[in-house]
Design a protein that fits this description.
- This protein is mostly beta strands.
- The protein has a single domain, classed as SH3 type barrels.
- It has no helices and five strands.
- Strands 4-3-2-1-5 form a five-stranded antiparallel sheet, with no helix packed on it.
- A hairpin with a 2-residue loop joins strand 2 and strand 3.
Length: 72
């Protein structure tokens, strides 16, 4: 993943399990801070909006989600 594709408030999905934090591949979070080049603070919330995890993740651990078609 190209670092400049990830932006503040992007919705992202995990590309790997993080069992020590009880986070699993495919879980969706929101990028809330750019900590360093290629490192982002991602917040994971439940359907009620309650945060259940927040941690620093590398760009390679994330997949940006898109809800509209990409135009060439």
């Amino acid at each position: 993943m190209n670092d400049n594709q990830i932006k503040l408030l992007d919705l992202v999905a995990l590309t790997e399990d993080i069992p020590e934090r009880e986070l699993w591949r495919g879980q969706v979070g929101t990028v809330v801070e750019n900590l360093a080049p290629g490192v982002y603070e991602v917040e994971f919330s439940d359907n009620e909006g309650r945060t259940f995890a927040s941690l620093a993740l590398k760009a390679v651990q994330l997949l940006v989600l898109h809800y509209e078609p990409a135009f060439a």
